Batch of 2 targets.
Target 1
Amino acid sequence: MDKQIILPIGPQHPLLKEPVHFRFSIEGEKIVEADIRLGYNHRGIEKAAESETYIQDLYMIERICGICSMTHATNFAHAVEEIAKVEVPPRARYIRVIVAELERLHSHLLWLGVAGHEIGFDTFFMVAWRDREVVMDLLEGITGNRVNYGINKPGGVRKDISDAQRKELQKGMDILEERIRYYQKVALEEPTFIARVAGIGKLDKEIAISHGAVGPTARGSGITYDVRRDLPYSAYGEIPFNVITSDRGDVLGRTIVRIGEMLESINIIRYAVEHLPEGPLAARIPRRIPAGEATTRYEAPRGECIHYVRANGTEVPDRVKVRAPTMANLVSIRSTLLNQEVADIPIIVAAIDPCLSCTDRTLVLLSNKQSSEITTWAELRKKSLAKTKRLL
Amino acid sequence: MKKLVGWAVRKSPWIIHFNAGGCNGCDIEILDALTPRFDLERFGVLLKGTPRHADIIVCTGPANEQIASRLKRIYDQMPGPKFVVACGSCAISGGAFRKCYNISGGIDKILPVAAYIPGCPPRPDAIIQGVYALIEKLKQEEEKNGKKD
Amino acid sequence: MVKKIDIASNQIREHFSGWIKTGELKLLSTISGYQEEGNIFIVYHCVNNEGAVDVRTSVPLAQPVLPSIVPVLPAATLYEREVQDLLGVRFEGHPDPRRLVLPEDFPDNVYPLRKDYVVNKEK
Amino acid sequence: MILIKIFFFPGLLFLMTYALYLQWFDRKVYARMQNRVGPPLFQPVADFLKLLSKQTIVPSSVQEQGMFWILPLISFAAVATSFLFIPVTASGPFYSFPGDLIIVAYLLTLPTLVLALAGWISTTSYSIIGGIRCLSQLFSYEVPFFIALLVPAIAVNSWNIATIATHLPHLVATHPLYMIPLALAFFSGLIALQGKLERKPFDIPDAETELVAGPFTEYSGRLFALFRITLDMEMVVGISLLSAIFLGGANPLMGIPGFVMFLIKTLFVAFLLAAIKSATARIRIDQLISFGWKILAPVSIVALLLQITMINL
């Protein structure tokens, strides 16, 4: 008797930091069908962006997502600079790379802790987040805020990096490197961690390509696509680094890729700090951006993030389109989840490191009718009770 | 006996976290408050999964239209003396997204909010100070109606 | 810089299936749309072996219908549904044209990203 | 006199306070291992009192309302009675008769069954799955736990906990060879106890990130408080049972009174459990069953066989 239970996860669930709604129908412990419902995190940023000047837009676009705010800020600034054909001074480009790599470090450390938490390894969560504080202090030192740094503005950067901060950066990188090497050992050798991570959430290369996966999720299945190397922006063209991939294709593969990337970020920061060129921090940019459009891509911690901005000569953008990396990975998540165990849902979902506040930033309208046919955690429980009774 | 129960409620506030469409900057800082450097467990605060076990619901984000009804429903499922904490400027007034018309402009439009924690995102120590202020408020209320009846 | 190609709306599917057969298309980043006077422009942002390419096509506002490329390229499922939600472009042949991003109680055939739509902030 | 013994010293009140103390000890050690500060001493007491004062909601979707209320009481009673057979002071347990080892072992399995039933009754999809997992987990650690208990019983060839506790140390002194099977049995008993108490790496039924709170999802207020204190008491009983039959329970040693020895041993075992808890991730249910049968059961069987052969030597 294959009793199908609908297991609703979200929109409020300890597994998810953000509201998304997965609905799995499961037989026993095997997942048979997975369905996703977005829209809970929807604020309507793009329509609002069309009614504010570029500077005000930057303030809001930076707050699309708490973990990758530098991604959206730099990407938007690049688009505006490309349309206005303004050349960003080298020092600003280097500072942007340093802050971007610091953000990748703190985002990956955050992911490592959350992945540990998802499989019940809370000590790993606590330890990973304790070391993340090192990065947060460095970020706060340079930009003045732990999250949503506000260091970018169209044409360049707002704050400089003093020599004292450069020494601090180097010291912080040494501490982090030693800690991350330890995590690499844990992730590759600790039996219970490996037991929960190896061999599950398999995403083979063909599906990853056809379903358009990006970032560590794709690189974990052997795809060597990294915006920093293939379409270099800010100072990545001048900084040597290598792209980490693994062709395991499972959650362990993505873990290896992310830890490898952290070590790469440390080397990038060290290189950038040593070769920080002198010069101005920003170039002048006119308030009214001439008509034109620009598509800019950025390698966010979760993958390729793309901004598409159209300007119409006034000081307000005509159209702003943001596509966050998680949206690309959501298509391929269904194939990684089918016929896996219920116990593995959290770690597989966490493996693509969903950042839903990015995915959902587009547009929703205010309405007063309160009818809803897809419901929440509580109502779904009633639905699943009715269904289970009917099936029992 | 009432005093003892009041003491117990103040000493072990279990929280549940609800992200009402925010940018998850505040959510990370709330989780950060549980980690070694800021450790909320010193005050007996535990992050609980189900609304059934929680006393305080910490909401972040400007509560967009679709999630507002879910937020209300989760709040109704919480037992006994329950409090709402609005964490982050989005939760207080819609914050950076006040221009987007999809949001209902803050948690207090939906639930009775007991404590506000400003900041975008508030630092973990600000969040701890917020929870502590809520506990202080409980103490004063208790002394107030302690004298009354 | 990003290469631009303009294509008529009915050849979209052949164009992309051609690209996939020759293995030239590395990644379809996303599909974005905008409205200009009488018609809606749909831009396919892709990455090929030699760099970034934007494939643009346009559909008249009165009759916004476009062949879906999901049968050829599954990656486009969510992007097409999003453009469908916000700009009202109907993608023929899309396997699962459910609403993606808008809430359930959102009035049908009102498309927020269109120019004629005004933000009615009731608050 | 007897009532005082039942309700106060070695009985209920002591058990509850010690259970709360052990919960604090466990959370503190767990936190310190993650170099966090950890909760203050009175934290479990505050949690317990607060839960008692909370409003108890019984969801309308539960048909057997009565059952929903009684279940926590059943498991509480089972664990409380089993504590009466454990020797706490030098003068031995409150009541002991040959064969009380088996009684205690069975009383300890009752709470798990009750938990599975509670999960089934509260009919949320989370708690149903939590309940099923409770049952499937039951089979994988019960057998090794029983076999591990048998080993010292056979060594001293008596089923009475008190006699095992008193005679075992002399026995080991005379035949040092017994140490090997006893150590093996202690190891598998400890791991099986970790599974019985559903603590990490075996806390699969109420895996917080997947099943929210497993069987407890629907319980709140007083009922949940009862369940929580029962789990802690089960920990106390389990630990003191292990320390009684393996480490020689509460008999005085070089002038230290029996009761203090009891405390030292139980805290030592509790420390071991907390260490296991903080060092491992939660394994999956199928891995648990294979681990239970492929590793835990054989180890305890080998210990049993070794012990039997040694006796006949």
Target 2
Amino acid sequence: MLGPDVPWYLVVAGILFGIGAMGVMLRRSPLIVLLSLEIMLNAANLAFVGFARLYGDLDGQIFALAVMAVAASEVVVGLGLIVAMARRKLALDVDSMTELRG
Amino acid sequence: MSVAGAWVCLLAPLAGLLAITGAGTRITRRQAGWIATVSVFVAFAGAVYTLIELIAQDASERERLSTAYTWFEAGRFEAGLQILVDPLAVTMMLVVTGVGGLIVWYSMGYMAGADEERRFFAYMALFVFSMLLLVQAGNLLLLLVGWGLVGLASYLLIGFDHHRPAAIAAAKKAFVMNAVGDATMALGLFLVIAKVGTLDFGPVFRAAEEGALSDTVVTLVALGLLGGAVAKSAQIPLQTWLPDAMEGPTPVSALIHAATMVTAGVYLICRTAPVFEAAPDVQHLAAGLGAVTLLAAGAIALVQWDIKRVIAYSTMSQIGYMFLGAGVGAYGFAMFHLVTHAFFKALLFLAAGVVIHHLAGEQDIRRMGGLRHYLPFTWLVFLVGSLALVGIPPLAGFWSKDAVLASALATGGVLGWSLYLAGLAGTFLTGLYTFRLFFRVFDGEPSPLVLEHAAGHGDHAHGAEDAAGHELHGHGEGPLSMLIPVGALAALTLIGGLLNVPGLWDTFEHWIAETSEPLVEATVGQDYLTSLLAVLLGAAGLLLARRAFLAGKDLVPGTSPLHDALARKLYFDDLYDALFSRPAQALAVRLRDRVETPVVQGSLEEIGTRTQEAAGEVARAQTGLLRTYAVAITGSVVVLAVVFIVVR
Amino acid sequence: MLATLLIVVPLAAALVIWVLPLPRETTAGIAVLAALAEVGLWVGGVFDFSLSPLGIEWVDFGSDQQLFGTSRAWFEELGVSYAVGFYGFQFWLTGLTVVVGACAIGYAMWVGRDRPRAYYGLVLFLVGSLVGVFASQDLLLFYVFFEAMLIPLYVLIGVWGGPQRVKATVTFVIYTMAGSLLMLASVVAFGIGQGTFSLATSGTSSNDWIFLGFVAAFAVKAPLFPFHGWLRDAYTQAPPEVSALLSGVVSKAAVFGLIWVVLPHFPGPVEDFRGLLLVLAAATLVYGSLLAFRQPDIRGVVAYSSMAQMGLITLGIFATNDLGLDGAVLQSVNHGLVSAAMFLLAGMVEERCGTGQLSALGGMAKGRPLLATLVLTTGMIVLAVPGSATFTGEFSILAGVFDHGWGYAAVGAAGIVIAAMYGLRLISALLHEGRGSSVPEDSPDLRAGELGLVVPLVAILLVLSAWPAAVSGNSFPGDAPAETIAGVGG
Amino acid sequence: MGNVVVWIVWLAAAGACLGSGVAVVTLTNPFYSALSLIGNLASLAVLYLLASAEFVAAAQVLVYAGAVMVMFLFVIAYLGGRADAPWAGGPRWLQVAAVVASVALLVEVIVALSFGADSRLGTEREVADSFGSPAEIGRLFLTDHLLAFEITSIVLLVAAVGGVVLGMKTSDEEARD
Amino acid sequence: MTVVGASIPTPDVDWLALSPTVALLAASALCLLGAVIVPQESRRLFSATVAFTGFVAAVVLAVDVFRETPDGVSLIADSMSRDRLAALAQILLAGVGGLAVLVAWGDRRRSHVGEYYALLTAAGAGMVFFVGSANLMTLVLGLEWFSIALYILCALDTDRERSLEAGLKYLVVGSFGSAILLFGAAMTYGATGELGFSAIRDAEGADDPVFVIGLAMIVAGLAFKASAAPFHMWTPDVYEGAPTAVTAFMAAATKAAALVVTLRVLVTAFPEQSEVWTVAVAVLAVASLAIGNLAALVQRDVKRMLAYSSVSQAGFMLIAIAADSSSGGKALLYYLVPYAAASLGAFAIVAARERELERPVTVDAMAGFGWERPLHGAAMWVFMLAFAGFPLTGGFLGKFYVFAAAYEAGWWWLVVVGVLATAISLYYYLGIVRAMYMRPSQVVGSTLAVAGGSPPYDPALGAAVAASVAVVVGSFVFVQPLVDLAADAVAHLPF
């Protein structure tokens, strides 16, 4: 194979997943949280693509494509929600959403 | 031989009880009294019939066990509702129903006008039934039932005046102390069941006689029975309830606490003689307790001021003689003394009842005196009774008490001699306290109280029994329904002793011997010697009492430490209070305050609180912050992955 | 068939009452009718109408056959079936249930409980589940009914009880459930281990933990010291008739469980733990008696005396011999009746005086002969005066446990003495001495309706006093209970 | 030599990918974050290409970096200044825990990978040139993965409905306002 | 499909297997259509009817699938399985959905009525599909399908802040969970090179750490959907904030679907690792029991309390999965029936109360409810008893069966934990009963009057409640037939 072996892809995927997860866990802006979620999904996609290459099996790529659609769907809903919240003049800060707790 | 009479005897009072209870207010008080009286006399008739039937039998045939049905059954253990008809039982039946009938009859006059008279007669019927069950019981379990039921009846009757705290307290005390006796007796019976497998007299006695039971077992069983006997018969150390029981109406004292129930212990020892004989130490213990009691009670009687209490201590003392007799194995004489004692002690109580009745409930002999002139008949019968009690011939007490003492002498040895000397000393004391009482009540100048009642317009309460029911003025010697029984008992006291005259005929002793063979037989010489000594000592006591009375002095000076000890009843009440009553109460309170509330209830609350606290912590972990959820998930995944890798 | 009928009739009546919007009187009428029908069915069961030309003959309790049984497949997968039927002691306990149940319902009608539809339905439901418990021949079915009876109890105490009712009911239900859930674990373990849940056909187990699970549940239910934390509040806060059912009948579920679940199926552990259990039972007896002696109110006294009695019964059960077992059954019936009577009487007194505090009561005997007679009679049976049925039971139990050491019997005998103390204290505090501060001068004697509730209970007790062998001699198949029990698991 | 170039490209792409990822997470302004994400997606597309996933790479650019991100930017623009949220903040322990947890997860994954790297993961199969081509992908989507294909569309449809429903001002809101 | 070129072999589509899903999708589409073309005033009637019909049709079709499928088959390159496990789960899910529609009927929303029912049916369709998934891809997609529908449903009351908060939290945390599941799927794929469950089982590399991490992540992702602790934290917030009818559906259906799929995945794909995941599942079960029960103890809001209770119920069901045996499977399936019914019914009651009070239902707000609304009160009582595992409800036999399965499998300590947890749970379950019957009503004359008096009786909700009661009690009486069905369902799982 040209370039690095598959495990390197996976390392990148893993790091990316970690970065995304950290974003979700650290950031308070729902927009950025959504972006971080995208990173996590893409990390998974990268892993899938890498493994697809490893096994010479297109299932992984198909999976990655499907996940893209799913990710898009989540973004749509997420953005819809953010818009609805903005319309309700709610603070766009996940830390302020503590009405429900305990 | 027909046992129908015995069954009639047993069931008639029960029928009376049920009739009175069932009829409730539909019958008058007087009718209730009649029902009770008649039912007891019917029972007496049954007893007499049974006696005749029994006499008609061969001496060896005079024992019949009759079972109505299997009363209790557990696995292979069975106890029938059965009665045993034999000379011992019939004797007791006669005493219980005969004396009982007279006393119930007497009560009709005595209790007239009392509140809740029906209840009184129902209780009396219950008592007679229970007592009959006790003496007729054909096995130990049923005997225990009767044993307990008389305790119940005693409780009910002592506490008859339930609005008086003293009466209630006395009733409770009597019941609880008797329960202690019941308990020890029950323990003895458990041991019997464990070792013999049955409570029927026959097999149990056979086992005891044949030595099938080890010495320890027999001793323990006998101790258990003795415990019951001591409690019921108010012997040391379970004697303290009897004086208090005098809170009950006087007929009750006469019937239960003089004539019948309290002597049940003696009956028990005679009935279970084979067991006691197999455990001679226990039997001797019984005799010893009897001796101690007769002295102690006699001594305490010297300082009592309550007319009934004096007689009550005298009862204890006399039962001490019976125990002494039964303890040395002179069952016949013990029973003989039981019978004569029933006569003269009932007589004394009923006569005292007349006095109390006359004085509208006053019982303190310090406020009496000179009654001889107002109550001549009562004076006479009281004198008869007192002389019989002291054992002056030819009255009943003379024959029976001397026979008991002679048997002690015949036993010999250290034990026999000690018992004998104690008994003799007792006769002296008897003379002393009996006539102290007699003179105080009947002799001398009439007291203000007596005069007041003689005038017939006493109108203030004296705070003693019957106060609620009686309008207070002199009753004289009371109605015929009181006088006839008193007269009948006086007659019995006069002639009762002739049932058994040492050296001439010993009908009674033989009669009892058919059930319980005596262990000792006094010689005629011993008899005469004893009689001589006893009469002399008794008379000496009498005279000393007379002198003291004339001198206006107390027999035991009120300032002496001895007086104090006697007045405090030798400290038994204080001792039990300190040893049992108060620790038990303290224990109960302590358990409630130190265990129940803090530990049992508290631990629950503690668990509840702790759980709530933990729950609060868990809920607080749910911060509502989105980011913490993500952290939790990530962390959990990390941990889960580690677990997976490790477990793998 | 009769067993099923006895279970179904009250449940069906409960449903009818709940579903149909009937007026108060009709509701009460249906409830009473159902309760009486239960009694009638049960009495009908005592006599077997088919055997004799006269049409009436005693059922043969001594036969090895289960009586009036029904068995249907239910949860075959795990070997669970709907199996009900009676052996002697079960039948007696059932009789106790229907009688006390009828009196309780009658009392409720007499008092006129609020929200009658809910109330009567729940009581009937309780009665049905209790009968179910006593008729069970399947372990899981037993557990089902054992738990089901808590459902109505929870509400009955919590809604109709005294001022502390909510705390009382919560403590009661959670405490008893904690115990019975441990039993559920044991039920599972035992049944799965045996491959069947049938009480009659499953064998024995020697697993101590399973055994302890069962014992825990029954120790809470009985209750035994120190598992009685729920007792006082529940017994004093519940409505009197519910207290009657609770202490009189519900606690007997523990008796049933110990006799029919634990003894036959865990002979080994029973042997190993006998000492401990006997000590606990004896401790219960003494502890209950002592606390009864210092309770400030009627129901507190009766409550702790119930506890003491349950300790006694447990002594008999773990004596595991003829005297102990037969005595335990007899005593269960006795205690059920007498404590029911006592609680009903307590209710009647409380209704008259507005309080159950002994210090505020007294002197009620004066002018109230019926009340006095009944309280006295019942009280005397409570304290087991010799000759009473309770005495016979106690005697038999203690004679039985004597086999395992005189100490137990001695403690039991001491218990009898303390029982006399608290019994007399209770009687006197109610009836005797001066009129208590809370006793209205004109408060009436018992009325006919009240008599109709208590007198039957007392009458049965008196009959049992005269003939205890009726129960004790007919409790188990065969003539030796201990052998019969041993035979079930073997 | 091609290898070296590929390596360089790979490293550049991977570096860009991770760098832009970090930028997404760290930048304060959501607008810049979104832009960084575009870079991230684009560099991922390069990695996909290198892993013989041409069609995926294309889709990544078109669908993701194109459509989705445009939507993102549009929303951010719509929100204007309101989109600016505090950076992080919150409890200190939370930040620490977040970092620790992510790093731990990362370490686990990488350790696991390193165990497998020598054996199964180390040796990839030879693949044909058509591997990852639109035709192959399309064929699979219509045969083996027909269901996935259909579901993807349904999911998108549902999301579309959701976007509409949530984005619209409702009569309930009006009633409340 | 015929339009596709000849070079591509058309896959054989088993329409019967897909029919429940398709029926629901059709209903969903109709509802959406209705949202546009049906006039406002009859829209609710139309949509609800269509949705209900769709769910009923799905039930009927699933029953047919069940009867027609004695042996499991996998379809379309092993991406989906048609078997009795799926069919049974579909019957349950669609049934719950139908009842949820009845509960939703009384919801007096003015806007998005058509979309509401469309999304409900769409979520139902997703679950119905999800339980039949046979490879990781269909699994993930099915999960996203119904999840996204539910995210929207949760946030649908855009006028309520809590609804929005719930929606966003669910979305973010849910996507986070999905991402983890997805990454796990990638790892598993990476270790085996396979996506199909049975293929994964047969593949090599089972002891690969990558594989194990993948398994852990998959378990975490599914546990997340089943709201098992410690992945449960979204549950209370979302359940509380979401429209109650949606909560009812979610609580009953999501958990059922997730647990059935967890069972299927673990048993079919990872039998070799059973000693690993049984321990993990047992740990999750214990955590769920502990955390769910403890947290529920201190809740004041009934929906929130029920949410925590659902966490603990998940714990019980995980015990059944941990048993890793056919009786465990049967126990799980049996347990789901009364659980789903009780859960739906309980939220239905809460919905009813909420509608008459027009404020969130706290435990205090339940005071006196039992006397004011006797039938609802009694029903609520039954549901609480079912949760608490009292006899005469299926909840009891469910617990019993679960414990039996666990004990058989040697998990005796799980049985003990379960028993203790049940004891704790009694406090709050009975707390509801306590409030309903033992506390004076605080409502009559005050808030209720402000809310315009009690609303007209809602027969649809009543029917749903009645059906739930019938199932809860019926599953107790007719346990064996249900267990027989469950036995058929798990017969082909490779235990």
